[in-house]
Amino acid sequence: MTQQTSKVALVTGASGGIGAETARRLARDGFAVIVNYAGNAAPAEQVAREIEAAGGKAVVAQADVSDPAAVRRLFDSAEAAFGGVDVVVNNAGIMKLANIADADDALFDQTLAVNLKGVFNVLREAARRLRDGGRIISLSSSVVGLLPPGYGVYAASKAAVETMSAILAKELRGRNITVNAIAPGPTATKLFLDGKPAEVIERLSKAAPLERLGQPDDIAGSIAFLAGPDGAWVNGQVLRVNGGIV
Questions:
Q1: DSSP code string of 115-165
Q2: Selected catalytic residue, list 154, 155, 165, 186
Q3: Cα(153)–Cα(116) distance, rounded to whole angstroms?
Q4: Do residues 161 and 119 touch, judged by C-beta distance below 8 A?
């Protein structure tokens, strides 16, 4: 049975890190939340349980965003659970690093399948199905400005996210839907920390003038700003949330 709620947020890649914290924050702000995950249901279900234990509403929905049919089913699930979608947080992504000379075809193809095609699939479906007055927020990265060696393919995928977001903002004229991107700097998530030596993490934690890594709730707070009433006049922008690193 469809439940009618005031506002509904769909968060992709919400089983951990920035996505999970964003789902929790939007639930605290009064949104019913669709907690999307790709492969591992247990952490996504834990996020949903935490939201419901705090008095919010959440459902879990599996979808690999690189699959257009799966993304359509994801929006179907949201509409079946809550009647529609008002906010989409396009967060799902992977980070595989290598110098361009050393990057193999699999690294390139996997990165673009999730970070570019996946974001495109969600943007396209959101453009078709988001309720008027809604918000679309995609995750870029501050490496688009930092341009560090080893990040060529990853940064290229995120630069494309910024470009598509700015164009979609113009294409949705007349529907009162804002489209923006958030570009985090180094943030203490599994995606960022895995595989990095301690000295690299220490160096990056001191790189910003505020001299610490970002935390998932730093990013979630900025997403919540764009999703909420105070962000209504921000459209077609990239907000770098990075402590001043670039």
A1: IIIIHHHHHHHHHHHSPTT-EEEEE--THHHH--TT-HHHHHHHHHHHHHH
A2: 154
A3: 11
A4: yes
* Rounded distance between C-alpha atoms, residue 11 and residue 36, angstroms: 6
Q: Which two tokens stand for residue 141?
A: 């990265």
- Total domains in the fold of the chain: 1
- Whether 186 maps to a domain, the answer reads yes
* Domain presence at residue 34: yes
The residue range of the domain holding 14 is 8-241
pLDDT tens across 82-134, in order?
Answer: 999 999 999 999 999 999 999 999 999 999 999 999 999 999 999 999 999 99
> If you search the block for the tokens 């509403």, which residue do you land on?
57
Q: Is the pTM of this model over 0.85?
A: yes
Judge whether 151 counts as a catalytic residue: no
Residue 198 covered by a domain = yes
Within a domain: residue 3? Answer: no
The CA distance from 208 to 231, in Å, is: 25
CATH number at residue 162: 3.40.50.720
* 11: exposed, middle or buried (Cβ count in 10 Å: 0-12, 13-18, 19+): buried
What letter represents residue 86's amino acid? D
Can you read off the two tokens belonging to residue 153? 């393919």
Q: Measured between alpha carbons, how far is 148 from 129 in angstroms, rounded to an integer?
A: 37
* Count of all residues that appear for the chain in the document: 246
